[in-house]
Amino acid sequence: MSARAAVALGALACLWGSSFLFIDLALEGLSPPQVVLGRLTLGALVLGLVVAALRAALPRRPVIWAHLLAAGLIANVIPWLLLAWGQQQVPSGLAGVLNAATPLFTTLMATLALTDERLHARRAVGLALGFVGVAVVVGPVELGAAAADRVPLLPQLAIVGAAACYGVGFIYMRRFLSGRGHPPLVLAAGQLACAAGVLWLGAPVVATGAPTLTPSVLGALTGLGVLGTGIAYLLYYRLLGEIGATRTSTVTYLIPVVAVTLGVVVLGEPVRASMLLGAVVVISGVALVQSQGARRRPVSGATPAGASDR
Predict the structure, then answer these.
(1) 30, 106, 245, 303: least CB-packed within 10 angstroms?
(2) How many alpha carbons fall within 13 Å on the CB side of residue 102?
């Protein structure tokens, strides 16, 4: 990996890792659906402008747009709503650690749904180890911890559910959108646009309530949509073309580090011993999963639009 690619990979980790901080700050003045609506709109706008500047051809067949709509619901609307709802009670750093389970769910779903993905011994051990790490993070509370410091279980499970949605979204995209002759950037732009359109239609019902648009909230929403979604995906697809999916997938190990660091430094979040231990176990499981068959198609390293909030 060249020095330029390494810097770009670090920048991508910072962009995706900071998304959890941006969500936390945006929730100070917006409801979860409003956060997701703003994020989708800004992200789709950034990618749409790039696609227009490149004069890239958009899909013409209605069936492709139908699949993009379904992928947007599975991989963007539902998981991002779960993530924003969960972060109302889950610290941003802890959310980043839980979201690190995304490659585990992606590999599990691929093994169950795709005939060319088999559960080899190393991959099976990695999956088991990774999910044990998730259990360590969401399960036990440190002995002697005050009740005010305990994180409710259901919001944590919502964030784990978001990671599971990313896994399902990848399989859907692999089956119905890959190999159809459209550049990934065009598909990502179309997917975000469809997802934003759906949420705009449902906004009068789900995104109600008067927002409090302070400079902090507006800045966080802009950072989340423009940087953590739009610019991050431009950088992601550039890295895919330059260093390949396997090396790009190493960003998975850096995202929770960035999320936890920003949570502690910016928000003063406490760090539980069980969270750190669980993070090590989860990342170790992911490493085993991704090391299996590195010369084959790296399922756990491929990411649909939104799957790293990653």
Answers:
(1) 245
(2) 33
Q: What is the rounded CA–CA span in Å between residue 53 and residue 73?
A: 26
- Look up tokens 């490149």; give the residue: 54
User: What residues does each domain of the chain span?
Assistant: 3-301
Distances in Å between the Cα of 219 and the Cα atoms of 10, 26, 29, 224, 308 are 22, 8, 11, 8, 21
Tell me which residue has tokens 């004069």.
55
Q: For residues 13 and 7, what is the distance between their CA atoms, to the nearest angstrom?
A: 10
Q: Residue 132 gets which letter from DSSP?
A: H
Instruction: Check: CB of residue 154 under 8 Å from CB of residue 308.
Output: no
Contacts of 222 (CB under 8 A, 6+ apart): 42
> Which tokens in the block code for residue 273?
């011993």
d(CA 44, CA 189): 6
Q: Tens digits of per-residue pLDDT, 109-167?
A: 888 887 777 778 888 899 999 999 998 888 755 444 555 567 888 999 999 999 999 98
| Mean pLDDT within 27-50 | 96
Task: Enter the tokens of residue 127.
Answer: 């999956």
pTM for the structure as a whole: 0.89
Q: What is the C-alpha separation between 219 and 47, in angstroms, rounded?
A: 19
CA distance 297 to 63: 26
